[in-house]
Design a protein that fits this description.
417 residues, alpha/beta, Lyase, Ornithine Decarboxylase, Chain A, domain 1, TIM Barrel, nine-stranded mixed β-sheet, eight-stranded parallel barrel, 18 strands, 30% helix, 23% strand
């Protein structure tokens, strides 16, 4: 059983009532102590087992500059994994040196590639055609390509980002040609990147993945007579979303893959650096979505209506993702009914939970939707003209507003009406 690390906090009903009174609901609440704990555990594991390494936080998970700055203060070596000009802006605004970032686009426009070149980030290209477009802008000193090893893994099919159905990466059969073309263009410093999936909790999968990446890397190096400066295995480190999910032993994971890594590169001092691009592992379980019960409906099913819906948290509607949900102040309450938990959006897919055993609730009770730090606010939207929620960072038990709640006027401020 995987007890949620924030579970004891959810019984502090006065804390959450004060947060509601001060900031309103729905609101995203991030617990700084958990973010720091996740960063420390991850950094200790990778630095203990790799001679040279670099952690690039995946900004797509959550781009709030205050959160990224908070992470950077705790781990000064933190770089960024960016996939758009907007994420480059967020990284720079947060104090991350863009030279410590990797920029991985896909099907990039000219404007995207200009922004990547101007940033000084390591550009990671998704296809040889991207190189052709990039060379019309300029010739960087260093690039990497994203390889598709032919397989991938993820909690959902939609977030399995490698294999024969994925839109990402260069097939391993074609990757040598891409590097050969880059060499001929005058580029002489290289990395290799692979991001094969997301939310993986099977530790042995990472052994399989790093082995495949290293086989591809050594083949490229032998064919083209150079050595990679870095090899990135991307992210994909999962967190438990169900009580029965296992937790990754991140130290054992890096110990295992380091043994494999250095069997291919026995001289540790001269081996490529290992880069990783975690997002969910750092921020995912540190976030709670605080929502209020707005109505209870007895129909063909029992519905608990809240002021948080699919516009606030998209993952359940998009992936049929499961999020643990608790009644604030009564996390051990008897599960007395089967309900759907829904929002106020005019879509039938607007469900945060379906057929969920849940305790008795009444209007104005507070609910906590767990594990929303990653791909929560960053995927929120304004359908039905619902303004996006506030974001609050808890430093100990001291709340700090890090994004004010949108207003209806904010939704129309670019229309010049």
């Amino acid at each position: 059983m995987s007890k949620h690390p924030l579970l004891p906090t959810l019984n502090e009903i006065s804390l959450f009532e004060s947060l509601k009174n001060e900031f309103g609901t729905p609101s995203y609440i991030y617990f700084g102590d958990r973010i720091k704990s996740n960063l420390s555990r991850l950094n200790k594991a990778i630095t203990s087992h790799f001679h040279t390494s670099h952690v690039c936080y995946a900004l797509k998970a959550n781009t709030n500059p205050h959160l990224i700055s908070f992470m950077k203060q705790h781990l000064p070596t933190l770089g960024g994994d960016c996939s758009s000009p907007g994420e480059l802006f967020a990284a720079q605004s947060s104090g991350i040196d863009l030279k410590e970032c990797i920029y991985t686009g896909n099907y990039e426009s000219t404007d995207d590639l200009i922004a990547a070149m101007d940033s000084g980030s390591t550009i990671n290209l998704d296809d040889q055609s991207s190189l052709d477009r990039l060379l019309k802008i300029g010739t960087p000193n260093k690039i990497s390509f994203r390889v598709n090893p032919g397989f991938g893994k993820g909690r959902f099919s939609q977030i399995t980002t490698a294999g024969d159905k994925a839109k990402f990466g260069i097939p391993k059969e074609s990757i040598v040609d891409a590097y050969r073309a880059a060499q001929k263009s005058g580029i002489n410093q290289f990395g290799l990147q692979c991001m094969a999936g997301s939310g993986v909790l099977d530790q042995t999968y990472f052994d399989t993945l790093i082995t495949a990446i290293l086989e591809i890397a050594r083949n490229i190096e032998l064919e083209l007579d150079f050595q990679f400066e870095f090899i990135s295995m991307g992210g994909g480190f999962g967190i438990p979303y169900h009580d029965e999910d296992p937790e990754l032993d991140i130290d054992a994971l890096f110990k295992s893959i380091s043994n494999i890594f250095y069997s291919y590169y026995p001289d540790r001092k001269k081996a490529p650096a290992l880069w990783i691009e975690p997002g969910k592992y750092i921020i995912g379980d540190a976030g709670v979505l605080l929502a209020s019960v707005t109505g209870i409906k007895k129909s063909y099913k029992t519905f608990i209506g809240t002021d948080a819906g699919m516009e606030t948290l998209m993952r359940p509607a998009l992936y049929n993702a499961y999020q643990r949900i608790y009644k604030i102040g009564e996390v051990e309450a008897k599960l007395s009914q089967t309900v759907d938990i829904t929002g106020r959006i005019c879509e039938n897919t607007d469900r945060l939970a379906v057929d969920r055993l849940f305790p008795f609730v009444k209007e104005n009770d507070l609910l906590a939707v767990m594990d929303v730090g990653a791909y929560g606010f960053s995927m929120s939207h304004q359908f039905n003209n619902r303004p996006r929620p506030a974001e609050i960072l808890m430093e100990g038990f001291i709340p700090r507003l890090i994004r004010r709640r949108e207003t209806i006027k904010d939704l129309f401020k670019t229309c010049e009406i």
